[in-house]
Amino acid sequence: MEISSRSDIAYQALRRAIIEQALAPGTKLREDEIGAHFGISRTLVRAALMRLSQEGLVEIKRKRTATVAIPSLDEAREIFEVRHCLEQQIVQRLTAHWRPEMGETLEAHVNEEEAAAQRGDTASASRLAGEFHIVLARLAGNALLARYLSEVVSRCSLILAVYGRPHVAECATAEHRNVIAALRARDAAASISIMNEHLHAVEARALPRPQEAEDVRISDILARYSTAG
Amino acid sequence: MEISSRSDIAYQALRRAIIEQALAPGTKLREDEIGAHFGISRTLVRAALMRLSQEGLVEIKRKRTATVAIPSLDEAREIFEVRHCLEQQIVQRLTAHWRPEMGETLEAHVNEEEAAAQRGDTASASRLAGEFHIVLARLAGNALLARYLSEVVSRCSLILAVYGRPHVAECATAEHRNVIAALRARDAAASISIMNEHLHAVEARALPRPQEAEDVRISDILARYSTAG
DNA sequence: ATCCTAAATCACGTATACATGAATGGGTCC
DNA sequence: GGACCCATTCATGTATACGTGATTTAGGAT
């Protein structure tokens, strides 16, 4: 049976391309072009784009070509705040209903992250780093929590693409192993604290420090380019 | 300028009808029928239905007429859990950034709830009771948090429709006033505790007690009907 | 060279057509 | 009388057509 409509194929492909930063924020997503690529009509492309738009990965404005979303700094901070809140709940659930095989699953995933990082596949490494949190969410056993977290983690990739320093690989495997260790100990307080630490590290890699952000002015940037450029 | 496409009109109307329980869970939503009512084509109706489906208010299955969603008990519990988590964050933000005029806004809203309840307009009263929490979320100043909460609160109306006792008006105005009072005192711990209490009360009205749910068996129900029916 | 304007092109918004898979009703057989 | 099967009807899945607003390009004036 044909499980997924061809609209889903376009949706999945676009989503992944955006998350892996193959499609940079701001990139135009023309319906015709995408439809031609997948061999589907604009009708189905629009459905995929609308879905991505609801998830905050694509921006759709009336009568304008859709683009990969460019989250503002304010949105970025909002996203991270919600993420903190959701991940805390997830960790709480995990320590409450921990089962040893969860540790195996997580361990296996981190190994994949490490492998991707070691072979220099930064796109996959970033994606897998994000997916680690989605695996956590699924294991926590609340589908809605997992859906929201998945959405929020995807948008963090966008934030990293816009505000993160270039070439900063996620390099989070060590931190992920710490999280697993804390969960295995089933110590809720410690797990939450370690997760919070990790999330702050992720946020620090993705966002400029607050005072930096406020200091940056267009004239400063232009000044840099007028002396040496 | 024509701000909202006509698809939005259908979306808004359907959403409100579902939330006010004018459209009961399980009701069929035929594209032709809806399109004819609003004077739009199926294309636009589909867009509205897809959006509602992503919010969990409508169920869409391939090649089947869309229906108003019927949340399962498991989903219902998941929804309430996420709601707890989000509302806690909202209350935390509110006590941190409290401004006196927020109290006025909230007070005015509760007055509306009360007015609707007193004139016997239970549909509006329920909707306004839910919207109280959405107003809180907006005042908290995190748009994403507000969006998720709005989605979750809408789905609570569905849960109430499916599992709540009939004719149970929400009657939450007193509890809402307690929340406002706690926020005004800017005591985060007390506010969170009062909000948790309120949410548990809401949940108790919407869901059967856990042991009840497990005890209910089809044979029990049939037994009732074979003696007296 | 720059800016403004007008025409042409492009991309989206929406309706509609046609194909296909579900639902329904009538008729037949046991 | 009830259950099964086929034909019909209905509702959705998808492509396409056409109108309109956005965008780009070419040309001319300053």
TrEMBL record, chains A, B:
This is GntR family transcriptional regulator. Signal peptide: none annotated. Residues 4-71 form the HTH gntR-type domain. SUPFAM superfamilies: GntR ligand-binding domain-like (SSF48008), Winged helix' DNA-binding domain (SSF46785). It comes from the Bacteria. It holds the Pfam family GntR. Keywords: DNA-binding, Transcription, Transcription regulation. GO terms for molecular function: DNA binding; DNA-binding transcription factor activity. It comes from Bosea spartocytisi.
